[in-house]
TrEMBL record:
Protein name stated in the entry: 6-carboxy-5,6,7,8-tetrahydropterin synthase
Record carries keyword Signal: no
Binding, Zn(2+): H14, H27, H29
Involved pathway(s): Purine metabolism; 7-cyano-7-deazaguanine biosynthesis
UniProt cross-references to InterPro entries, sorted A to Z: 6-PTP_synth/QueD, 6-PTP_synth/QueD_sf
Species of the source: Kosmotoga pacifica
Cofactors demanded by this protein: Zn(2+)
Amino acid sequence: MFYITKEFTFDAAHNLVKYHGKCEKLHGHTYRLRVTVVGEPNDEGMVIDFLELKEVVKENVLKHLDHAYINEIIEQPTAEYIAKWIYDRLKKLINNERRKLHEVVLWETPTSFVRYLEEK
């Protein structure tokens, strides 16, 4: 199996309405996103073209989250729920008979991140 990964960054604001602490107040992050696809190469020798992966993420994730107030998209926008939201949007666009979305990794800060993948 081959694992193909592309990284992205985006800036967004949120507040955690069900949390009691300083993160319940409006604040922002520069998020780092890593998307990994697993599978076997096609006739061209690629699991997924990096350009295709870039466009899928740009149109279906970054277009909605970059410079956005994430609470308008996700009710309780923790890193966990943002990562799952991204995964759920991408899997239907990426998965086919020879490849599937493996995982989404989302950094909220340079030292804090969440990994989301679906178990078989």
